[in-house]
């Protein structure tokens, strides 16, 4: 698999996502990075990246605060939106091709090898997604009905590796495809799809405006040294269900406004 430098990937991705975010709302550029407080203060929305509200963005995806903090060896991925987090999900289309994936995403500077992918394979991002037309968490029964293959519409977590690909639209991102016959390094909870995705089973917790996910790490120091951003986006399965399989054609909000990954992890 051909590797591209992370700085080059971030530059190309930043250009694409910034243009998409500006199309949604110019107020995204009013974001600022607030390092003056730590998690646990009376205001739950301290630290991380603060972003001005954007009236043109759907309230459930209008990110105004994005944070990653740590407690012991656990990282806490946090996002707050203007409306009710998780309230809006994709409509079921009845087929995989062309189906939509609604996502809250934390792009990071973590090396993909941190969670079990090939080193420097792309931009490692943590994501919470909903997509009722397919299930990509075969090891877990999120809705508790005894069938682990019908839970795609329930909000669940992933690690994904992203790269720009003009086949998804000029400058747009995709989840990196695995070419036929290739055998890249993959996490133990890889769901079997021909893309760089992991389904680790970490449970998203929604409460009013807030979404949080607690994720344990063997090396929390790698997380504490990382930078991050926040994105609300729609991913889409290719209409031909071929590479690129999963594109990111619709960005609703970028926390920093320009995907500069300004967020510093709160300890």
Show the helix and strand layout.
Blueprint: H1 6-24, E1 32-33, E2 49-50, E3 63-71, E4 74-81, E5 100-107, E6 123-130, E7 156-164, E8 173-175, E9 197-198, E10 204-207, E11 210-216, H2 220-224, E12 227-228, E13 231-237, E14 246-254, E15 263-264
Antiparallel strand pairs: 1-2, 2-3, 3-4, 4-11, 5-6, 5-13, 6-7, 7-8, 7-9, 8-14, 10-11, 12-15, 13-14
Feature tags:
six-stranded antiparallel beta barrel, 267 residues, 2 helices, globular
Task: State the end-to-end CA separation.
Answer: 35 Å
Mean pLDDT: 88
The main pleated sheet reads as: 6 strands, antiparallel
- How many helices in DSSP terms? 2
Total count of domains: 1
Main sheet: strand order:
1-2-3-4-11-10
Give me the secondary-structure category.
mainly beta
Shape: globular
Residue runs with pLDDT of under 50 for 5 or more positions: 18-42
Report the sheet-strand fraction: 25-35%
Helix content: under 10%
Order of H and E elements: HEEEEEEEEEEEHEEEE
Please state the oligomeric state of the protein chains shown. single chain
Total E-strand runs: 15
Q: Rg to the nearest angstrom?
A: 17 Å
């Amino acid at each position: 698999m051909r590797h591209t430098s992370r700085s080059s990937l971030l530059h190309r991705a930043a250009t694409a996502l910034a243009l998409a975010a500006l199309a949604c709302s110019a107020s995204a550029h009013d974001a600022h990075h607030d390092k003056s407080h730590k998690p646990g203060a009376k205001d739950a929305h301290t630290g991380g990246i603060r972003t001005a509200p954007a009236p043109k963005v759907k309230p459930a995806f209008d990110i105004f605060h994005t944070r990653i903090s740590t407690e012991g060896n656990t990282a806490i991925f946090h996002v707050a939106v203007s409306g009710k987090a998780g309230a809006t999900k994709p409509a079921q289309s009845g087929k995989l091709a062309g189906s939509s994936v609604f996502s809250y995403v934390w792009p990071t500077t973590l090396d993909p090898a941190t969670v079990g992918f090939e080193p420097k394979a792309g931009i490692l991002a943590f994501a919470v997604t909903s997509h009722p037309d397919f299930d990509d968490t075969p090891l877990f029964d999120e809705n508790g009905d005894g069938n682990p293959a019908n839970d795609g519409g329930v909000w669940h977590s992933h690690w994904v590796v992203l790269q720009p690909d003009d086949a998804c639209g000029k400058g747009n991102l995709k989840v990196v495809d695995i070419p036929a016959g290739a055998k890249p390094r993959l996490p133990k909870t890889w769901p079997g799809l021909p893309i760089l995705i992991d389904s680790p089973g970490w449970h998203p917790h929604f409460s009013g405006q807030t979404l949080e996910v607690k994720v344990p790490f063997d090396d929390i120091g790698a997380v504490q040294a990382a930078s991050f951003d926040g994105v609300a986006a729609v991913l889409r399965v290719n209409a031909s269900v071929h590479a690129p399989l999963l594109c990111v054609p619709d960005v609703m909000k970028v926390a920093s406004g320009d995907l500069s990954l300004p967020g510093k992890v709160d300890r």
